[in-house]
Structures
1.
Amino acid sequence: MRPDSDKLQKAVARFSSLRILVLGDVMLDRFIWGTVKRISPEAPVPVVEVSGETVMLGGAGNVLRNLITLGARADLCGVVGKDGSAVRIKELVRALKADVLGLTEDPERPSTVKTRVIAHSQQLVRIDQENRAPLSRALTERLWEYLEKALPAADAVIVSDYAKGVVSAPLMARLSGAYSGIISVDPKVENLSFFRGATVITPNHLEAAAGAGVSLDEPDYVERAGRLLLARLGAQAVLITQGEQGMSLFCGETKIHIPTTAQQVYDVTGAGDTVIGVLTLGLAAGLSLEEAAWLANRAAGIVVGEVGTSAISYQTLWDSLERP
């Protein structure tokens, strides 16, 4: 059932009083836009005639962008290289009126950049520049020094894990030991064991099945995966996103399915960042897990209707709550 609209709007109105700390893999998302009119004579591939290019924050950076466009204050902690992409990342963070003190430079690795080539509203190819090796002990210590100073002011912590080396078991152990508030995690399968005891974990249905060791051929694989992950990780809740099928929330003995509100799905890029951002803000604003999940689902339904990594604005989310 849909939660009370007045309660949801009061929670959204409180977003501006909240401060969220984002820890994770910071990226630069680059989109090359164009059209395809012919196939290359050199190989059976389309020739893209470029019409434009867009650069924006991705990964943990896109979580930051979602939080700030929703009216909250946010701090970002992660690692960049010492290169031109790092300069651009910092420019984009500053443009959001956020500081870059939590971005640690590592001259031994490139900044993570994902380049997507899009023609006729379809992604043709993605090119990744990255180093997935774990951080050195010295770099991890520098991240912790920043986190330790930022935690007292945080109303919640979001961990945005893309398995690029920033999030580690030792770092998560220190975080969970030092912070007793809301910790929301968007995990990668290989790192699931790092997040025991988190408030809520938000894998997609494929990640959940892989992490729980459940076959996708089982008709109830989402429910089995959700219950197994909840038990194994000792989290308060597991929220499994399922694209066009909506979301399923597992909390204690309760399972709640929330159908999608998307009218049409164009691009799911960045939708997970919107989900965890809105979910965490909702919880920090006093909503229940079910209410916050419903709100996150409404926000995701808006974002997937746009092409390219997207962030939802405060006004757009507010207006959506006045509709059925």
2.
Amino acid sequence: MRFGLSDEQELLQAMLREFAAKELPAPRLREIFDAGNGWDAALWRGAAGVGLQGLAVAERYGGAGLELLELALAFEVLGEAVLPGPFLGHALAALALSRGGSDAQRERWLPKFASGEAIGALAIAESGDIWEPGQWSAALDGGAVRGVKQFVDHAAIADVFVVGVCGGRLALVERSANGVQIDPVDGLDRTRALARVELDGAAADLLPGGSDVADAVCDAGRILLAADAFGAAWKLIEMTVEYTLTREQFGTPLAQFQGVKHEIANLAAQTEPMRGLFWYAAHAFDHLPDESAAAACAAKAHVPDRAVHVSRQVIELHGGIGFTWESDVQFWAKRVLFDRSWLGGPRAHRERLAALENW
């Protein structure tokens, strides 16, 4: 039994870390964050150049054909770097097409998704904190969809939406279709631009896959959010170690104070074991279907929630500057808040896990 990553998986993370360090230095990250739209075309093209958008797309469509575990490992690095862009919705839209699309739908969109030429987005949330497929109310009738979707990631630049409709099904709606209205929503995480999308009789192309596809897409989203939150939490701990080694109080580095050392050690001890939650959930997604849903819920319920705890402690350890706009800590703190709330909060996922396990 293997408990670590393969050489290829470690190489994948190393390559993405090198890309992020080169393409997203701190001044550029702050510039994108301050702009508030979470979008940089050059960064998106660069990511396509290293194959990020096509990691989990089949080779026949121009992707790498990797599994969700490799995609989760990539999202861990995205969280470390707080990489701006529509990577989350794009990855889930590609997964929806891969699992539930027709041959024609796949042939049309997946090669463009893999190359980054086209951008996909997932539009499933509805008012009242509704995320689950069985609760979707958007109506699909006669090839047209009517309804309102909330918190759609990078809707303004997406080429096509994968929309959740009644019956737990998914349908494709192009942004350019008549009846699509996009209204920006101000969010905390400025690396991910959110919008409200109103669909008033917009032409829709139903994916032939059933409600099980929608469930799988949501489970994948839970895992990727957990991976992203873990990467962000670990980066915050590393930043705090560096800060406390250089910041002095009474002529002594903060890291020498017992209370500071103990707090950082506790955060690391609480965070490190969380790798296993999203690693196992990602493995189960492709290899253990009977365990996949429960594992995804456990990862989503725990990892982003603890990551938010880490961010709050880190802000305190950074003292008077930690909560300010000028401090870089805010980038990661706001990232994990998004990861905690998108697709539903910890309580909703604990309740779902209890129901799945018949507790």
3.
Amino acid sequence: MDQKNQKYQGIIPAFYACYDDVGEISPSRTQALARHLLAQGVQGVYVNGSSGECIYLSVQERKTILENVMEAVGGKLLVIAHVACNNTRDSIELARHAQQLGVDAIAAIPPIYFRLNEQAIAKYWNDISAAASKTDFIIYNIPQLAGVALTLPLLHEMMKNPRMVAVKNSSMPVQDIWQFLDAGEGRIDVFNGPDEQFIAGRIMGACGGIGGTYGVMPKLFLKLNLLFEDGNFSQATALQGEICRIITALCSCQGNMYDVIKQILRRKGIYCGSVRAPLLAVEQSDVQQIGICEKMIKEAEMKYL
């Protein structure tokens, strides 16, 4: 790994949007969640991404979240700010703001809805990167949601940008991780995205992971990464299976998975509010399943930690 990329590794939870009781961004709850994750021993946080409900937040709300994360853990944790909006102007504004705050890197998905060609996507990413020219840039590849996939020709084009240091890869085939690393010729890192395949991604060369369920069970993912690094693949595979079952349970409520996660965190004294519509909040009928999810996490922690 290139020396300048040594910091891009390990367990990096995707940060959750924290609301007050009437659904507005809560600075105090944002800082509390950031401090909680710091205390768990994670390597960084990925702010204002998919798990942070970014597409439902205004530019100012995303600034407020990042400002409070930086106030709470800036300089103590790696901070990657996802700055993509569905237009270049707003994305540039967020990129400049992130650089002013001193984040370690910015990241961006491609614009969604209109199917842009690769020339337009590269220009979009490079325009964002140029607006924060002293800050590292990370491509966020999530084709199942963005509607467009990172290809090797597009990656080669982006590698002309010296600030492009990594790919957050949330495509499902783990082969993509190897392909991007191979094309990068040692200059870039690749993070595993899908939490259910963390070990597979690490085996294929991922430097670590950025994930949406890490925040509700950070110690399990930290242990999983340690088992991999120690070469204990048998126990790592078993723990990955436990995590996959937990994720399935988290997705088994009427309410959105991120509200299920926030309700489990609430039981631990970490208040994040609910989720923003059109995401569905949990219902009374979900309470029993939320308890089951909480119990599964606790049992896995007792077994593996």
